[in-house]
Write a structure and sequence with these properties.
The structure is a homodimer. With about 350 residues, chain A is of the alpha/beta class. Chain A has 13 helices and twelve strands. In chain A, strands 2-1-3-4-5-11 form a six-stranded parallel β-sheet, sandwiched between helices. Chain A has a four-stranded parallel β-sheet with strand order 7-6-8-9, sandwiched between helices. Chain A binds a DNA duplex (30 and 30 nucleotides) through helix 2 and helix 4.
DNA sequence: AGACATAACAAAAACGTTTTTGGCGAGAGG
DNA sequence: CCTCTCGCCAAAAACGTTTTTGTTATGTCT
């Protein structure tokens, strides 16, 4: 059986309170005693039980990563994984441990945010995957626990958001196509009521307007972010439109771009020679397709890292709640043809 | 503040002990009292604090997922994610919660397996990513805690393994190529000392032998499982071999297949028309490449699910430690040409 | 009727920490 | 010499549960 604090106390000839204060580097324990205790603890291989720790202590609570919709098959594994890598990267660098909980819209109804936090002694949380209609979106702003939402805009005294400027990024992506001579652009749209879709639409609209182009229902293909829908959507599109009515496809996600390219190839068209396609997200997979897809990298791993840092800073009171907008990166690969270039 | 067991006790006019036994459905509490307590608990939104719970109770401990090497950039994100999905799937179905810990070879030295388990009240664990040289590989067999290793063969009284028959699967994959008329096959090899590489090599060797083919260093390209190494490896290969000295590339992983295809394409060759390529793992990404890659699906999600189930069964004493070999699936896609077919 | 089992709960111990409060001796200031 | 502070540590309370042990009333058997 592993050593407890009591074993250390007995071996060092002090009480458990002194051991605790010695190991936590309190001031009021003599330097010699402290060192003796630390030596004994090391010799016994003592490690404080974390359960007991955060039970007793007021401020030794845990930080959590709460993932919503993780189990639903969105095909976007990369997102959560990258996020987790960023978060655990920070955690390992700062020797903190984070607890992960997977929830969904249903479990949010069964167990409130406060209940969840209380149940697991959660001092602060990072939340990802929240839909605007989710119950937790109402609970977070009124909670006294600091939290950081990723890709979800929520305001409150103790809420920070880590996002990127989706509007600007998508504007930039659209402009990128326009700059390369594309005037007839079809937008492959994501889930209609999703916040991200709305923002990206706004970005596209903004760029279209600025360049005197029109964005109408006629040149939008609607999907729910699934690859297959882009595939069938593109096929549908060409049933009512001539092949040369469009030169580029502006997709709201990489997966949609993959579906679009697949459809075009199946029709015997080449990318980017016949049609240009751009994606959005910066998934690893865009490196492995043919052609490699030009996309906007969301730097999701960095998002995770920054979210973790922000949360810890908030918990330590060294940084106020804030809205952090991370930079995005337009990654030029090989799926776009420059029409201007002769 | 959330309700504690004391609040429930007071509101129901009983002691906390009775509340605990009532909520945990013990026999020795009157049916009426029990129902009253449960009603009060519901009204107060009471949820037992899990930290306190597993501190006090002997058998209310936690099950853990211990991931080694998660933060190292292996580009195999899909693996861990799929695994986690399987595990959390089981967890959500059975209302148990699992704690995740990410470690690596270094942290294994700093904190022993037993210390880790004691520190976090872990009753049993699922381990993934263990290298054969890792310290935990010696600790697990002598531990009294049940555990399940995934893709790592370890024997011990309380150790189960969930694996697939790598040898047979790779044999089957090799035979698949041979059956389609391929005689000149180049093996794209993974990390040399890795267990999985050795097993897959054995499978390939076995199939080669059976068909009277020779597997020599001359037709093996060595890599460390990285895509770039396959890419450069294939280029190197053709510097010393004529283009028609080979018809198929047998890759030990999907990533290697992706790199191989990329190299071939860059040389102006077509897949599968000029060269056939097969992968191994069944990553989602093999669906998005061009051509889609024929591969062996490891059913990693199911591995996670079964591992979780097995561990729980072991903890509940309803299933002994065992070596579980899950089925694999050869997935035919479009990266192999049938030479026999005219 | 007396001994004894049983149902149903109360009371208290235990889990392993952190934190608060108490106490004692030594040195300092008046 | 008396008090006051302070360094240092012991003692005990607290965290929120589960589990063990005790107790009381009620019934059952001989």
């Amino acid at each position: 059986m592993a050593a407890t604090i009591r074993d250390v106390a007995k071996a060092a000839g002090v009480t458990i309170g002194t051991v605790s204060r010695a190991l936590n580097n309190y001031e009021d324990v003599n330097i010699h005693t402290r060192e003796r205790i630390q030596r004994v603890a090391r010799e016994l291989g003592y490690r404080p039980n974390q359960m007991a720790r955060c039970l007793s202590s007021k401020h030794m609570k845990r930080i959590a990563l709460i993932l919503s919709g993780f189990l639903e098959d969105t095909m976007l594994n990369d997102f959560e994984t990258m996020l987790m890598k960023g978060i655990y990267q920070f955690a390992s660098e700062h020797d903190i441990d984070i607890a992960m909980y997977v929830i969904n819209s249903t479990t949010q109804l069964e167990k409130s945010y406060e209940q969840l936090c209380y149940e697991y002694n959660i001092a602060g949380a990072i939340l990802f995957g929240l839909k605007t209609t989710d119950p937790y979106c109402e609970a977070l702003p009124v909670s006294s626990r600091p939290c950081v939402t990723i890709d979800t805009e929520l305001s409150g005294e103790h809420i920070s958001n880590v996002t990127l400027d989706d509007v600007a990024a998508f504007d930039e992506l659209t402009q990128y196509l326009i700059d390369r001579g594309h005037r007839n652009i079809v937008l492959v749209h994501g889930r209609k009521n999703a916040m991200v879709s709305m923002e990206r639409l706004a970005g596209a609209y903004q760029a279209f307007e600025r360049n005197g182009l029109k964005l109408t229902h006629d040149n939008i293909i609607y999907t729910n972010f699934h690859r297959e829908e882009a595939l069938s959507g593109v096929n549908e599109y060409f049933k009512t439109h001539s092949p040369d009515s469009v030169t580029a496809f502006l997709c709201m996600s990489d997966m949609l771009a993959i579906g679009t390219i697949e459809a075009l190839k199946a029709m015997g068209r080449r990318v980017p020679e016949d049609y240009s396609v751009v994606g959005y997200d910066g998934l690893e997979v865009t490196n492995y397709t043919d052609p490699k897809i030009t996309t906007v990298d969301q730097n999701i791993k960095q998002k995770g890292y920054e979210a973790a840092r922000l949360l810890c800073d908030m918990l330590n009171g060294v940084r106020p709640a804030q809205k952090l907008v991370l930079p995005h990166t337009l990654v030029e690969r090989g799926s776009v043809k420059d029409l201007a270039q002769k």
